[in-house]
Write a sequence for this structure.
């Protein structure tokens, strides 16, 4: 199995119930941002700029739970900001698991070892660690030496304690895909359970635009990425990968992955902000969805990100004969790649000076500085 059986069962039942009830728009993944503060200042992160005035605000656990219940999505991606500097992350996770949510905790990995004792292994809970390359590349992307090494130590600790761990990687114009294959080999050796990847997108809040790709460049990059990486346990829908390779059309269904943060329900999507709504109902009803997506809004021109398009094969139109079988087969079969080497640190491209024991700033201290999100939090593992 590519995913835990409970996730497959719950997601399937949820989609069937909503389709049979004739629900027009319903969410699959809640992108929950309890805070926007972060201990890093990654290149390509939009949150540091967009939410600078409210960077120190946080949602309460009760607000987070209220949002999860209000929208009803079976999967919650806890992101931000860095969720492992959220003071009550352990309680929030436990309460969401009690409510039968499947959780991806999207982290830069710097505080996994510090806070691991606040979590219990659960087949509905993944640490989802952001890694954009091997040591030198990743540390350059996050603008700090030692981050790769500490994230790897966090992964090792989490695996040793029995947790599920996935990684997520943003593919930029300059990304060396051979290096990503090397990263996946290395992580497979550490016991990492699956891999997410998504194209970067030059949304307006990010000032460094030369690292982002046009639609045609994304398609070319992902044709190569699929050829190199499909043997690994990719946790990316095959229908979304077809879209990324330019083999099928999909319309944006950003309402399928709504974002909730200290300012409210962010519309229209995780990337662009035209409004914040006080309730999910208001977000759904007042957002002019017909104005967004490729060909409708110039800002959407080169966007192919998972939050807009990964749910689309299920929630939008354009189904093809054989889609259901393709998805079922994909869910039931893991990637074939076996570990090539032992789970030791193997920074093949050198660089970095990390000591492998985390930053001096503890969780609370980290909350005062830094930036917000990454563009690669693909957490929509099953779609049928
Ligand atoms: S295409 Fe959809 S997900 Fe992408 S920027 Fe536009 S509204 Fe957001």
């Amino acid at each position: 199995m590519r995913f835990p059986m409970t996730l497959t069962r719950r997601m399937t039942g949820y989609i069937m119930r909503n389709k049979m009830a004739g629900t027009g728009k319903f969410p699959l993944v809640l992108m929950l941002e309890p805070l926007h503060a972060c201990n890093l200042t990654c290149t390509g992160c939009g949150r540091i700029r967009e939410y600078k005035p409210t960077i120190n605000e946080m949602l309460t656990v009760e607000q987070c739970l209220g949002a999860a219940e209000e929208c009803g999505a079976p999967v919650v991606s806890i992101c931000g900001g860095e969720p492992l500097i959220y003071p009550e992350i352990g309680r929030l996770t436990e309460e969401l698991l009690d409510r039968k949510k499947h959780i991806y905790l999207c982290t830069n990995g710097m505080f996994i070892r510090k806070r691991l004792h606040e979590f219990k292994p659960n087949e509905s809970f993944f640490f989802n660690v952001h890694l954009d390359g091997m040591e030198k590349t990743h540390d350059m992307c996050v603008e700090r030496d030692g981050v790769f090494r500490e994230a790897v130590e966090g992964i090792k600790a989490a695996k040793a304690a029995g947790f599920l761990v996935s990684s997520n990687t943003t593919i930029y114009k300059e990304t060396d895909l051979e290096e990503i294959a090397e990263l996946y080999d290395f992580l497979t050796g550490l016991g990492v359970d699956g891999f997410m990847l998504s194209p970067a997108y030059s949304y307006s809040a990010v000032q460094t635009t030369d690292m982002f790709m046009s639609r045609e460049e994304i398609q070319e990059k992902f044709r190569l990425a699929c050829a190199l990486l499909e043997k690994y346990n990719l946790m990316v829908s095959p229908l979304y990968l077809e879209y990324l390779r330019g083999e099928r059309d999909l319309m944006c269904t950003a309402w399928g992955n709504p974002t909730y943060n200290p300012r409210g329900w962010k519309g229209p999507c995780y990337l662009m902000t035209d409004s914040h709504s006080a309730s999910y109902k208001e977000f759904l009803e007042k957002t002019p969805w017909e104005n967004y997506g490729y060909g409708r809004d110039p800002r959407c021109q080169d966007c192919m990100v998972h939050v807009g398009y990964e749910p689309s094969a299920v929630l939008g139109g354009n189904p093809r004969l054989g889609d259901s079988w393709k998805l079922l087969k994909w869910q039931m079969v893991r990637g074939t790649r076996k570990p090539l080497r032992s789970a030791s640190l193997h920074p093949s491209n050198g660089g970095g000076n990390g000591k492998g024991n985390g930053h001096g700033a503890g969780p609370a201290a980290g909350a005062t500085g830094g930036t917000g999100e990454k563009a690669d939090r693909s957490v929509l593992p099953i779609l049928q």
